[in-house]
Amino acid sequence: MEAKIEFVKNWSDDDMSQLTISSCDGASRFSHEVYVGHEQLRNAVRGLDAFKDDVYGGMYDLRFGTFGPDFAAGAFHARFQFDQHADLLITVHAQSRFVEFPINQVASEITLYLTALPSQLDDFVRALRAVSDGHADSATLDAAGPYF
Q1: pLDDT at 57
Q2: Nearest to 112 by CA among 23, 9, 33, 11
Q3: CATH topology for 4-142?
């Protein structure tokens, strides 16, 4: 398995898109769906585009969906942070949608740790912009996990 974060647009209407987000650290993989408003996706692209030039201590939180049973689909939170060597450190926390279980509602969750190079982030921002603009259906951030 290759370490990466991949966004695939499943469908889109006038208000939002449904994305399948797959996160893999090279040993574990988690895939789930989230709903993202078009403006929220455009804002994420703008935020990541500004962040990618802040290699000396910058931090950016990419959030889609809401954690907990009150949201229609899953949730995704990736914290991007540059270390002292300008390498990108990424912490992914993801949650599937809640489903009925014998005694209550449950959702699967995962936390993964990845690293990437600034050039890989540049490629991801370009690809995510193409998804946001409707010119592509997927964007991938190639990365490395702690198992390299």
Answers
A1: 76
A2: 23
A3: Transcriptional Co-activator pc4; Chain A (2.30.31)
